[in-house]
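Hi everyone,

Forwarding the result from last night's run.
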Amino acid sequence: MLNPLHNQFDPDRLWEMDRDHFLHPWTHFDSFEKEGSLVIAKGQGCHVTDAQGKRYLDGIGGMWCVNVGYGRDELAHVMADQAMQLAYSNTFVDVSNPPAAMLAAKLASLAPGSLNRVIYSLTGSAANEGAIRMAQYYHGRKGNHSRKHIISRKNSYHGSTVLTASIGLRDGDRQDEFHYLTSFIHHLSAPYYYRNGGGMTETEFTDVLVQEFKDKIAELGADNIACFIAEPIQASGGVVPPPPGYLKRMRQVCKEHDILFIADEVVTAFGRIGHMFASYDEFGIQPDMIVMAKGITSGYFPLGATLYSDEIHEVVSTDNPDGWFAHGFTCAGHPIGCAVALKNIEIMEREDICGHVRNVGDYFENRLMELEDLPLVGDVRGKRLMMCVEYVADKETKAHIPHEVNISKRISNLCEERGLLVRPMGHLDVMSPPLTITREETDFLVDTLRSAISDITDELVKEGVV
């Protein structure tokens, strides 16, 4: 049994308790009943150790989030110190706390342009929800009460609340047992050139995507649209980078029609592709809002935030004596979470984590590209420490391997046996390791993944699948 004082437990009993009582996010009931969970007990640097004592390189970075790595004493100490000083603080209406105020100012100093205002939350889902509600509130305060509609994209993931699950549209997420909001949410094509390019050049493909956006605006009427929400690089939807110029052109269309541009940087912010925020530094766009979570605390404490512009704030706050922004959460601006975020950002700046990512991330990206010579690998894509491998049965036709083969899971299972964790998603294996990963560790990751792909290929040949 678990002994919280000494962190000692019976691994088999712990596995049973987890299987019998814990409904995990995205539980696949049949396989979970048979296999249960991989129970992770410890983490240090870029490695985790399971309850049985086996060590793995965490090629997933927790869930895109353990940016500065596991086992950071500084983050543990700041948590304890803040808990002793002020463990909780209500932040509703006109109450605050020092870490929340200091973090808000720090985020404003890091963000591009006039993104100087912060809405706190606990998750990326809630942070996106806050952004959507602010967009609708903003237009309402301008007298445009019909501007409630939201434009998103296929292959997107923006969270798992009812609203954000409806805004996202990722393969496999929609289930008949759930109800989704549809009357005011619309989806454009994903900027997924590998699958949707259809023989066009990337420039021609971008032209088609931008025209689709313009056509949707004409169909709905600009006066009915509140915002366009987009991940700079679609993450859980397949690690899909946009074609060159796409985001700039979509941003320009938004400006022309007074449609707010929300950049969902829950994954890309805080160094994942080498910048604190990717929107401006990587893609050259100035959003009206940036949404963040995950890397803001390196996963050490739940925290989300929505940055919005001074221009928005002026509209919602000026000449509004009876106005209330009726949105928020019990633990918004939690003092422990904000203290951890401040220390996390301090570590990133002191160690130049973003510079390290640009260096090691380029190396990792180039090494992964070497896998394109393997017969099952149709595409290797992403940016720096946000990458994926897409598997195909035929490189020419890009035909998928039959679903029942469960190709990405078979490959990730073999990686796991060999001490590497990658994330299987349909026909993809996704990698987002801690940002402190070394070149030697990236070599282990790529070499282990290559050997697993090769061995599974041999198995599929024997089975007559390929």
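Residues 38-68+353-463 form a domain with the Aspartate Aminotransferase, domain 1 fold (CATH 3.90.1150.10).

Cheers,
N.
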